[in-house]
Amino acid sequence: MSQLLRRPFGSHGKTHQITPADAGWRYVGFSLYRLRPGESAEEATGSNEVILVMVEGKAAFHAAGRDWGVLGERMDVFEKTPPHCLYVPNGAEWRAVAESDCTIAVCTAPGRGGHEARRIGPDGISLTERGKGGNTRYINNIAMEAEDYCDSLLVTEVFTPAGHWSSYPSHRHDEDDFPRITYLEETYYHRLNPVDGWAVQRVYTDDGSLDEVMAVRNHDVVLVPRGHHPCGAPYGFELYYLNVMAGPRRNWRFVPAPEVEQLM
After folding, report:
1. What is the C-alpha to C-alpha distance for residues 182 and 254, in angstroms, rounded to an integer?
2. Helix (H, G, I), strand (E, B) or coil at 69
3. Are the beta carbons of 2 and 227 closer than 8 angstroms?
4. How many CB atoms lie within 10 A of CB 263?
């Protein structure tokens, strides 16, 4: 199996834990908790900032010395309603207690103490259409460049209808040459509807030194250390993914693959 494809190591509790050291890069970390009512998860942020995304379900949060109450509203991610999220800076702690079955994504990157803890969404997040034809998909921007919520993190959700492509036309963000392109590592946390469906993701460089095509299943994570990284959802299978990006600067600039430049 590809080293870029990470399958969950269970269906309950902490089911993913990807660190920069584990991924072989410098910035992005990603973990996932799947909790039952009454169960809890807690972590210290250390040198990282964190965005906690309530993918599904409800949980009560205490973080950075404050009680944030119960976050979460959608019980199925494919409801496509805006997510409830919580930003926690570096040098803090957080704790979540599940109020229902819930899925909590933990998105991490280096923090510099430049932002205070805050709620993100659902207010201010609206489902936005992007692309056209078979490239149409729908975006919930959680903390992209326009939202000055974080020191390093860029986080967004994407819903790809059955039979459509996304993260396409193929593009890369693997050089530090702003404003032409920025270096951003990226993780994709995938969900499928129905749950026994599958989708494909290709990660490839222009010179062919990296070229992998992966069949992704429900709850898989794909690492994108460099290169282009399009996703395709077969007819009959709807695809969701949560993107986490970070690099030396908090800007998203990319270059298309030569074979699709005319499609941009």
Report:
1. 7
2. strand
3. no
4. 11
User: 75 — phi, psi (to 5°)?
Assistant: -100, -15
Phi, psi of 33 (to 5 degrees): -115, 135
Q: Tell me whether the omega of the peptide bond preceding residue 225 falls within 30 degrees of 0, making it cis.
A: no
Cβ-contact 46, 88 below 8 angstroms: no
| Sheet-wide strand order for 231-232 | 165-166, 231-232, 199-204, 211-216
Check: CB of residue 230 under 8 Å from CB of residue 201: yes
Are 93 and 45 in contact by the 8 Å Cβ rule? The answer is yes
What's the confidence (pLDDT) of residue 122? 96
Contact (Cβ atoms closer than 8 angstroms) between residue 208 and residue 258: no
Question: Are the CB atoms for 153 and 246 separated by under 8 Å?
Answer: yes
pLDDT tens-place string over residues 115-143? 999 999 999 999 999 999 999 999 999 99
In which element (H, E) is residue 186 found?
strand 185-193
Whether pLDDT at 1 is above 90 = no
- Tell me the per-residue pLDDT of 171-222, one tens digit each, with 9 for 90 and over: 999 999 999 999 999 999 999 999 999 999 999 999 999 999 999 999 999 9
Alpha helices in the chain (DSSP H): 20-23
Tens of pLDDT, residue by residue over 41-100, are 999 999 999 999 999 999 999 999 999 999 999 999 999 999 999 999 999 999 999 999
Using CA of residue 50, residue 125, residue 174, residue 214, what is the dihedral sign? positive
Q: CA–CA separation, 177 vs 173, rounded Å? A: 10
What tokens were used for 225?
Answer: 């250390």
What is the C-alpha separation between 137 and 55, in angstroms, rounded?
Answer: 18
* CB 94 within 8 Å of CB 52: yes
